[in-house]
Protein: Murein L,D-transpeptidase YcbB/YkuD
Organism: Flavobacterium xueshanense
Amino acid sequence: MNNLFLIVLLCTFISCKKEALESEVILKKEIVKPRVQPEGKPTNIDSVVVISLHNKVLKDFYISTNYRTVWQSEKKRKIILAELLKSDEEGLNPEDYNLKTLYDFEKRATTLDSLDIAEYDILLTSCLQKYISHLTNGRLNPRKLYKNWDLKENYIDLNATVALLLQTDSLAYTIEQLKPNHIVYKRLKKALRQINAFPKDDFKPIKFTKIITPNDTNPSLIAIKKRLIYWKELQPKDSLSLVYDEETANALKKFQSRHGLAADAKIGAGTIASLNFSRNQRTQQILVNLERWRWYPKQMGKEYIIINIPDYKLTLVNNNDTLRTHRVIVGRAKRKTPVLSSKLTQVVFNPTWTVPPTILREDVIPAILKSRSYLTQSNIKVYDSNGRIVSPYEWQLSQAKTYRYVQSPGTFNSLGMVKIIFPNRFSVYLHDTNHRDYFDKIDRSLSSGCVRVDNPLELTEYILNDEVNWNLGEITETLQNERTKFVNIRKEIAFHLLYWTAWSENNKLIFRDDIYNLDAALYDKLRN
């Protein structure tokens, strides 16, 4: 009977819809309300006390217990308290969970009267629900913060989850399973432990005056060497010189590599900016990235493509194994690449390119006004509302925004030779480019929102997964005829465009430039 009850609870935990909660999670309406049978000798709770808290999910939970306490087990109470106490390991704030009051109740647990027992039980349940909510969806709602983030909420039925925790004999393990289990989240937790092990710093900002190259002598080198020693790139020394020696150059290249900079040993403005980040700033950066990963899908899919926008990198994962990586170009700050989850649906060979409104307004129309020959040189055809071709010399500025502008397929096409589609409301996609030299740049925040992929034909061959009809030879032959062809993707491949700027790899802290300037603002919202 107990096993059957657990199975029912687990199914409820997975599939139930939820209702609105005062903490940041928006819950679906519950279809099945769990009926909780408190263990031990429960204490009755005055329903007025629960109702007065104006927390519907909490009220519904105690309706399911028939307004009786549930945390009679000292062992389970202490496990929950320990989890809340170490919530900082998840990048959360233990102060959010009334720990001082909870621990005070626990110290007096054997002498509490019935009113205090009820109050302790309600508070413990409420704080546990909040903690579960934060673990599974984060403290903040990205849908309210960003217009160009399209992430589905990680739905969880809090009451069914708490009921499951009450029944389990492995409470700590079950709570652990609620946490994001993606490798990046785990690496961020490791990064948080690593950065917390560093001592406090009191460095003053280093001013950039000119590029410093190996063998140069410069007064800033003392401060630079101290930073490299602090971050454990350079061995401590009894005395430091003003000379940029080989040992310092090698240490700096390691530092540059960890920060996504060109590992060329040149100390330029970008390197100085990264050196000027304090330990406290890097800690904040890790904390905001932990929050983001609580927003991201808990299940990425058996096979998926994941793109980290600030790292300019596409990774294809199958059964937790990384099979391919590709360099990418993403949207610049004024035309940001959105954050979203979708799935790959179609490949277009020799795609045409219909100019989107923003590029039309900011780029194409100004170029036409400078020279009507721009349209011919760019191989762009203009169509009026009746589908008639408008010649460059018939083109009128007053009608410019009513026309449709289509670039013909070919090597000169802005989308290159191939386009990979995933449904989304931003009309972005993966594509080739006619500027492949851009992939050699360190800063690849260059596009108008879509993502350009290096070596896209190899990726396309893998995605289509058809050695007979769509091997690289067949793909090349299709491209050579310059006719547009649409091919559906038969494999189930999830697609995730995400944003994170910190993690840990091989016991090293890794950071990337916050190219869209999101980190500091998010930290302020988390802590204020």
